[in-house]
Amino acid sequence: MRDPLFLGGCALYALNRWVLKPHFHQLFLHSWFNDSLLIPCALPPLLLTHRFLKLRRHDAPPTEGEIAMHLIFWSILFEWWGPHLFKHATGDWLDVAAYWAGGLVAWLWWNRSVIFVSLGRHEL
Fold first, then answer.
1. Comparing C-alpha atoms, which of 48, 49, 34, 43 is closest to residue 68?
2. Which residues contact 14 (CB under 8 A, 6 or more apart)?
3. Diameter of the chain by CA atoms?
4. How far apart are CA 74 and CA 115, in angstroms?
5. DSSP H helical ranges for the chain
6. Cβ(69)–Cβ(81) below 8 Å
């Protein structure tokens, strides 16, 4: 929960929600910016809950499988089931793309030390 990506993502969400969206009318801010923060903001507290429930045995950063599993579940839940259950909701594949883009950025952040070590060993 003290991860800089989680804290920064939550701060960016609040900034966009209460400061930027009311004053700026860019489509990205209104439609996809907060969607891209789904994994950085929602996954850490969920994995902490999994840890407390003994469904997760470590406190390491999320694995590729954990990120992908939650992306698939949330994409189906928010963009397919939700619109079928609640007629005021609409499914949007660009929302799914934003979830996955944010998930990729989060994965890169959480694995930055491994990535930089790998890049240092192999010259590009």
1. 43
2. none
3. 53
4. 27
5. 4-15, 21-23, 27-31, 38-52, 64-76, 82-85, 93-110, 112-121
6. no
Q: Which of 67, 59, 12 is nearest to 35 (CA)?
A: 12
C-alpha to C-alpha distance for 52 and 48, rounded to whole angstroms = 6
What tokens were used for 68?
């992908």
- For the residues of 68-82, what is the DSSP string, one character each? HHHHHHHHHIIIIIH
- Tokens 């890049």 correspond to what residue? 119
At residue 56 the predicted structure's pLDDT band, cuts being 50, 70 and 90, is very high
pLDDT at 120: 66
Total Cβ atoms within 10 A of residue 22: 9
